[in-house]
Amino acid sequence: MTARPFRLGFFTHANTTSAPAEANEELVRLFVGAEELGYDIGFLAQHLLVDAEEGSAPSPLVSLGPVAVATDRIDIGVSVVTLPVTDPVQLVQDALTLDGIARGRLHLGLGTGNANIARYAAYGVSDADPARAFDEHLEVFLDTLAGHPIRGSSDRIHTDGTGLAQRLWRSPGRVETARQAARSGLGVLFGTATLDARTQQRPIIDAYLDEWRSVGPIQAPPEFRPLVRPRLGGIRMIHPANSRPEAIDELTRFIDSSRRRLAAVSGINADAVDAEQVLRQMNLKTGTPAETAAAIRDDVALLPDADYVIAVTGVLEQVEVGHGAKHTVDVALRGLERIARDTAPLLGWTPAA
């Protein structure tokens, strides 16, 4: 049997205009539908202290509980828990509880939560040095997960954490952070839209792989070092359509909002940013299914190194809203179906059995 070239996933911010109960039901339908389409994994973002239209899952480990019960095969992930504002011991216990409910399908991303740094104060945490706070909490988290005495006490957890240790991730934005992820035995999720694949993301990937080859997970607890392997997950906006002109038309809402964002970052007039520049700078793969597959194949930060190719649902939701759909999480399913049916197979992917 030919090995599958990568695993196909999706990443949702859980943006919705629905009430909380309905929003949770939508999230379940999204994962169930993706499982039926053969997706291998789905990641849910954490957004702290925002309204539902920005993200309706401030506590993703709680939100994924019903998802774990309603699904059987698809892996479920969080990208990422804002570790500096989270008690690492409680996080271990919560994550292992969810992993038990999911029967060993949880992937846990850990990060400083750049989008949430301005909200650290609300949690009683200083934002002066997020990286240092992350490192301190990660050390406690890994020691606790390995069953070591917690914070110098005689207490320790009594659940085997070796399975979850092999499904931990970090989302680094710098070369040194990527090297630290390798030394800690974590996988790397990458895909910030405005980071150029060749000049910014590829160096991060190369540094991570080089560090793993050079020294390996030397800072992971000894129990985990023989078990963990390097893992790369590339997050991209993907929108296959009938033609590239049709794709550009369907992406009008996304292009307009991104044009303003890019102009603000670059300090230029938004009118000076054309549609193709937006798509290129946002790492968005679109056009016909064949054109979309070719764009994924040509992305220097994806294949063949990426173990996971992960489609962002937000752009798919915006297209459906532009067609008159209500802004809900599960409107993304039509776009996920096109990716799984028409584009991913052109790259050698086959649905999970």
TrEMBL record:
SUPFAM superfamilies: Bacterial luciferase-like. GO terms for cellular component: cytosol. Residues 12-298 form the Luciferase-like domain. It comes from the Bacteria. One of its GO terms (molecular function) is oxidoreductase activity, acting on paired donors, with incorporation or reduction of molecular oxygen. Gene3D superfamilies: Luciferase-like domain (3.20.20.30). InterPro entries: Bact_Lucif_Oxidored, Luciferase-like_dom, Luciferase-like_sf. This is LLM class flavin-dependent oxidoreductase. It comes from Nakamurella leprariae.
